[in-house]
Design a protein that fits this description.
By secondary structure, the chain is an alpha/beta fold. It has helices at residues 3-15, 35-44, 55-72, 131-146, 198-209, 229-242, 257-260, 272-288, 314-326, 350-355, 416-423, 436-440, 471-482, 488-499, 504-525, 557-560, 584-591, 601-604, 619-642, 650-682, 697-702; strands spanning 47-50, 77-79, 87-89, 111-118, 121-128, 155-158, 164-168, 214-216, 248-252, 294-297, 331-335, 366-371, 395-400, 451-455, 566-567, 607-608. It binds 4-O-methyl-alpha-D-glucopyranuronic acid (GCV). 4-O-methyl-alpha-D-glucopyranuronic acid binds at residues 170, 178-179, 220-221, 298, 302, 337, 376.
Length: 713
């Protein structure tokens, strides 16, 4: 293309490109630029009919109306009856014709969208057994239009694969957010219940549009105050705002709340007065919030109180709360993220050791919420061995959406590939093909209650997630929670079209950046199965030298074990034997030096510096190669992003461009500091192609990040 043609093209593109602050996220209903397509849609959809009065159907019709008015540049009218409707929104029992199909398979949330002749006129029917199913269907219909797909002859049925699809906010009552990188909490506790932020409703819309159906408002490092009458009144108001969008509210329950706010002398779960206290508290909650979802509990972990303090098991603690909630259909999400202070054994083994013996002892409304890997949301971990190991206990997945160890609010790191890698891992629990996805969607063990949680990355930054591309992780979590068979690419593609542009260059460039970004982050932070190498406290920059902390397993040296002979954590029989927690087929693969995937090599093995990798390089050279390639890939991302100038709005373009500079600086720091540090053990020269570090190891070690968002230190 010559220069003239290019500038004309850019001017045309610019006509549709104006400053945007990202607030609208993927529900950014821009006029459809292709006039022919816009006209086709507009001819097809002119009116919406809703026969029933219901807040959720009001929300659905209002969303469709606002969105279509904008996208089609027309005026869509809403009727409660009309001769020739374009879209009918109704639950199956209220559709204005005989609906002969059985809808049992749709359950409470599945929807059916189909074309139907009504009064000799073709219309789109969006239906389901409940109003919320109709809302989900409406968002689906909108997504088809947002991604510019055909809406004629529709015949779509979707049913979510997992029941409980929740965000976990690590938000504190003082407005701070633990590991939150997008500003303060969106919950404005002090102003509630009087002031109701409009963000609550928008938050509900975004969640509902991807099928998220619950939110835990408060941090797992819990504050009992949220259970006081004063705070429950505030929670009630949030619940009222979220309810029309099908979002249930859950709270974190601090285990010794009966002592802290109840005035009791104990929180022993077998004590009758403690049980009575919780029963009354739960009754009070349901009086305020009739559809309250239940409790999320972090107990006996990182200083949180729990049943072990009274010599009781996790099952005894969880069951006490579960019994209090049972009559209201509430649930308990009890976290498996535990590691005891007394046990100096490999931390990766502790959750399995504590929970596996309790299999079958939990009440039916308890889910064991388990992080994807056995340590802690590292850039890459093998899957948690508890998945598949508890046949009689529902396990729910806990993913992290906030990027605690993956560049926080500053790096592009699209997480769908991480989620997919974990969900598709084979546990071999019932022979080959027993994937983690099947464990959590209940199909492997015919589990009745299923769930998935994502630690939220939402804050009160104008664009919700600080990094404009981090919105994609919120979106991807929801889409996968609804349907874990979607691919990372499919999700990214629809997100880009909805959030940025349909322009092929934009879509392809962003796809390339996003799909590689998680691997890139792994390369420059913790390649080849290294883990927990971050700086003390804030978890952002490098700190492979971190030692001498209150617990060995809070240091980095505990995990990399570098010495003059080699590097890595021996988790085979000659070491901690953590491999034994996996089913035999997985065990064999991870335990064998030859068969262990190189991505997990240093997670499971301590290997000599001279060990030869598949590439033919030694471990030392491979490490240098990985760190350096990670940096080069960030440089490549920068070039790719720069090429989008003029194709997307200036505000978000330059925001991402500036953040990529931060990402590049940090990637260089990770590379140079890590390699210089490990060199003190390998005693090997840097490969010739490795750029000269600009500072000494001593200087790198002195770099301190103070006041990083989300770190509280
Ligand atoms: C909420 C890690 C994080 C903590 C977090 C904890 C957890 O240790 O660094 O901030 O606490 O995980 O998941 O409970």
């Amino acid at each position: 293309m010559n220069k003239m043609a290019l500038s004309i093209l850019l001017c045309v593109v610019a006509l549709f490109v104006h400053a945007e602050d990202g607030y609208d996220a993927w529900l950014r209903y821009q006029p459809i630029a292709d006039e022919q397509l816009r006209t086709e849609y507009a001819q097809y959809i002119q009116s919406i009919v809703v026969f029933q009065e219901h807040p959720t159907l009001d929300a659905a019709s209002a969303e469709l109306q606002d969105a279509l008015n904008e996208m089609l540049q027309t005026e869509i009218l809403i009727y409660n009856d009309v001769q020739k409707p374009s879209v009918i929104l109704a639950t199956v029992d209220k559709v204005p014709f005989t609906y002969s199909e059985s809808t049992e398979h749709l359950g409470d949330e599945g929807f059916h969208i189909f074309e139907k002749k009504y009064n000799s006129h073709s219309c789109i029917v969006v239906t389901g057994n409940t109003e919320i199913a109709v809302l989900y269907g409406s968002f689906h219909l909108l997504r088809l239009i947002q991604t510019q797909q055909s809406i004629t002859k529709l015949a779509i049925t979707e049913v979510p694969t997992i029941d409980v699809r929740v965000l976990n906010h690590w938000d504190n009552l003082d407005g701070s957010v633990e590991r939150g990188y997008a500003g303060q909490s969106i919950w404005r506790w002090f102003e509630l219940p009087q002031v109701v932020s409009p963000r609550y409703r928008d938050y509900a819309r975004y969640n509902s549009s991807v099928g998220i159906n619950g939110t835990v408002l408060t941090n797992v490092n819990a504050n009992a105050d949220v259970l006081t009458t004063e705070y429950l009144d505030k929670v009630r108001v949030i619940a009222d705002e979220l309810r029309p969008y099908g979002i249930k509210v859950y709270l974190t329950a601090r285990f010794n709340a009966p002592i802290e706010i109840g005035g009791l002398g104990t929180a022993d779960p077998l004590d009758a007065s403690v049980q009575e206290w919780w029963n009354k508290k739960v009754a009070e909650i349901y009086t305020n919030i009739p559809d309250f979802g239940g409790f999320l509990v972090k107990a006996n972990s990182e200083g949180q109180p729990g049943p072990n303090d009274y010599g009781r098991s996790h099952a005894e603690g969880a069951n006490m709360l579960a019994r209090a909630l049972q009559i209201y259909n509430g649930i308990v999400m009890w976290r498996a993220f535990v590691y005891s202070n007394k046990e100096p054994e490999d931390r990766a083994k502790q959750a399995y050791n504590e929970f596996k013996p309790l299999d079958g002892e939990f009440e039916k409304n308890v889910l064991i919420q388990t992080k994807n890997g056995p340590i802690d949301f590292q850039p890459r971990e093998p899957f948690h061995p508890l998945f598949g190991a508890m046949e009689h206990t529902p396990l729910m997945m806990e993913f992290q959406i906030t990027q605690e160890y993956l560049g926080q609010g500053f790096h592009v790191c699209y997480l769908a590939p991480l989620y997919k890698e974990c969900l598709s891992a084979d546990t071999y629990a019932r022979g080959e093909g027993s994937t983690l996805a099947e464990v959590i969607d209940g199909s492997l063990y015919d589990t009745q209650l299923t769930g998935i949680a994502g630690v939220s990355n939402v804050g009160n930054d104008r664009n919700w997630t600080r990094h404009p591309l981090a919105q994609a992780n919120w979106y991807a979590f929801g889409r996968l929670a609804w349907n874990h068979e979607l691919t990372s690419k499919q999700i990214a593609e629809e997100w880009i079209c909805m959030t940025f542009s349909h322009n092929k260059k934009v879509v392809n460039t962003m796809l390339d950046i996003m799909l590689q970004s998680r691997e890139t982050e792994v390369m420059y932070t913790s390649p080849l199965g290294l883990h927990h190498q971050m700086a003390w406290h804030h978890h952002y920059g490098p700190g492979p030298w971190v030692d001498n902390k209150p617990r060995a397993d809070w240091t980095s040296i505990y995990y990399h074990n570098a010495d003059s002979t080699g590097i890595g954590f021996d988790r085979t029989k000659t070491g901690s034997n953590a491999v034994a927690q996996y089913y035999p087929e997985v065990q064999e693969r991870f335990a064998s030096l030859e068969n262990c995937p190189e991505d997990y090599l240093l997670w499971f093995h301590h290997v000599p510096w001279e060990y030869t990798m598949n590439s033919g390089r030694t471990v030392w050279n491979e490490l240098c190669y990985m760190y350096h390639t990670g940096v080069q890939r960030v440089e490549q991302m920068q070039t790719q992003w720069d090429s989008l100038e003029g194709y997307i709005d200036e505000q978000r373009f330059s925001h991402v461009q500036s953040l990529l500079k931060i990402q590049h600086n940090t990637a260089c720091l990770w590379r140079d500091a890590s390699v210089l540090y490990f060199q003190t053990f390998s005693h090997k020269p840097l490969p010739k192609w490795f750029p000269n570090p600009t500072q000494t190891l001593k200087e790198y070690k002195q770099i301190e990040y103070k006041y990083l968002p989300g770190s509280q230190f």
